[in-house]
Specification:
It is built from five helices and nine strands. With 184 residues, it is an alpha/beta fold.
């Protein structure tokens, strides 16, 4: 796993796009500071820029440059089997390609060891969006991921999703409002 995380980190640092297993779905990712790579992901997915993207990290410090949490507010620890993506205020450093037309940015502390290794190796949060084409079903396994994305990304990180069963729940950190129910 560590070897693949190092390969992924080198690709991300050189402006690349990766596909990888996360808690519940396969994702597409790049560095949040690389607008060309972010645009590439949006193009690959044919995703409307107004929708925004998610940032995932192995610790809060990796999210610090991109978010603006109110004083004395902290993120809950990640739940391994039921990941929660939080909508939080963003900093001025974040690209509008990440936030879209949203008033906050979606972030998640990951419990997935593969994603944790990638974020640790690159020393940053990474962009995360489901590995599918807009409006199409989410990719279910490595074979399908390779068939659909091997010509579109720079590296497919080997591994399986888990332990969640699908997409994360999305909640507003400030209000607690559930914006999307996760797969249970």
């Amino acid at each position: 796993m560590k070897k693949n995380a190092i390969i992924a980190a080198k690709i991300l640092k050189s402006g690349g796009v990766i596909a990888y297993p996360s808690e519940g779905v396969f994702g597409l990712g790049c560095l949040p500071s690389d607008e060309l790579a972010i645009k590439r992901i949006l193009t690959i997915k044919n995703r409307n820029v107004s929708k925004g993207l998610i940032l995932i990290a192995s610790n809060v410090e990796q999210l610090d440059p991109w978010i603006n949490l109110p004083t004395k507010v902290s993120l809950p620890e990640p739940e391994e089997k039921y990941p929660i993506t939080w909508i939080v205020p963003f900093s001025t450093k974040i690209s509008k390609f990440v936030t879209g037309k949203n008033e906050g940015v979606a972030i998640r502390l990951t419990a997935n060891p593969i994603v944790q290794s990638i974020c640790s190796a690159v020393e940053s949060a990474i962009i995360s969006t489901s590995a599918n084409f807009s409006g199409q079903p989410i990719v279910k396994n490595q074979t399908e991921l390779k068939e659909k994305f091997s010509d579109l990304v720079d590296f497919i990180v080997p591994g399986d999703c888990g332990p969640a069963l699908g997409s994360s729940e999305i909640r507003n950190l400030k209000t607690g409002q559930v914006l999307r129910h996760g797969t249970k």
